[in-house]
Amino acid sequence: MSIKPTLLVLAAGIGSRYGGLKQMDQVGPSGETIIDYSIYDAMKAGFGKVVFVIRRDIEKDFKEVFIDKLKDHIDVDYVFQHIDMVPKGISFSYNRNKPWGTGHAVMVAEQKINEPFAVINADDFYGGSSYRVMADFLTNSSDINEYSMVGYRLDRTLSDHGHVARGVCETNQDSYLRIVNERTRIEKAKGKILFTDDDGSITVLTGNETVSMNFWGFKKSVFDHLNELFIQFVKENSDDPKAEFFIPDMITDLINKNAAKVKVLNTDELWFGVTYREDKPIVIESIRELVSKGVYPSKLW
């Protein structure tokens, strides 16, 4: 029997643009959150465990909303992310008041994960087939330093209510990732998709570009890489209270060093999420349509 992969849900972030704990917002007909649909899809795809990364101050609410509800359906656990979780002997500026980023969020879950695992954002809806291709990869890939990423078509990941940040991916002919170019301001405007660079220059995008939505597949070996690179990161950014250690930065470093390779698993799924409060009605309607088509039951749990 093959080992069932684990799903790691990054739920420690505060939705600054959205304004609140959007991880707990109800979008389904029976009060489901986006996380509920993610876990439902993951379970159907063959995932056997869920681990949440959360902040300590939301533990009580989070347990009431998720842990108690899910424990009868799937093995579930959680871990805290906070700024003091750094390797011994490493110092940093105590002006810092925010976590260290998504790479650090994965790193703090090391003691909770013993099998291949996928990483997702708590507030993103990825679609059932995306979990199936990821589960297939994690179950069948034997190379301990071969990781993966689900790649979405850019025009299927945009908001109608403002700009978004997307990692635009370049791959080789075998669909292995070469680089992720972080594009922090992409938006729909005048019937086009525009990227505005930090210097104000504007590039028109086709919409067919493959982008990362932070849906990654890893083996246990990634924790060794994360710990090593995080020590280097903190040393270089110890006095910058806003510096963050992001997964794409770690991935780019490993690819450049030939320490790991990342297979891009393409999907035709329509991504949606709640980047802005105005996105919520669209998410609710999208879920309603999927329920009416029979993709999901009207009550998940």
Order of helices and strands: EHEHEHEEHEEEEEEHHEEH
* CATH class identity of one domain: Alpha Beta
The CATH architecture classification of one domain is: Alpha-Beta Complex
Number of strands: 13
Count of helical stretches: 7
Give the low-pLDDT segments.
14-19
| CATH homologous group name of one domain | Spore Coat Polysaccharide Biosynthesis Protein SpsA, Chain A
Q: Which sheet architecture does the biggest sheet show?
A: 11 strands, mixed
Overview of this structure, please?
The chain is of the alpha/beta class. It has a domain at 6-149 and 212-241 and 270-292: Spore Coat Polysaccharide Biosynthesis Protein SpsA, Chain A (Alpha-Beta Complex). The protein is 27% helix and 26% strand. It has seven helices and 13 strands. The chain has helices at 34-45, 59-70, 102-107, 128-140, 222-237, 247-256, 280-292, and strands spanning 6-10, 49-54, 75-80, 117-121, 124-125, 146-153, 164-171, 177-189, 192-196, 202-205, 210-218, 261-266, 272-273. Strands 1, 2, 3, 4, 6, 7, 8, 9, 10, 11 and 12 form an eleven-stranded mixed β-sheet that branches. A two-stranded antiparallel sheet has the order 5-13. Helix 1 crosses helix 4. The radius of gyration is 19 Å and the shape is globular. It starts with 5 loop residues before the first strand and ends in a 9-residue tail after the last helix. The model is unreliable at 14-19 (pLDDT under 50).
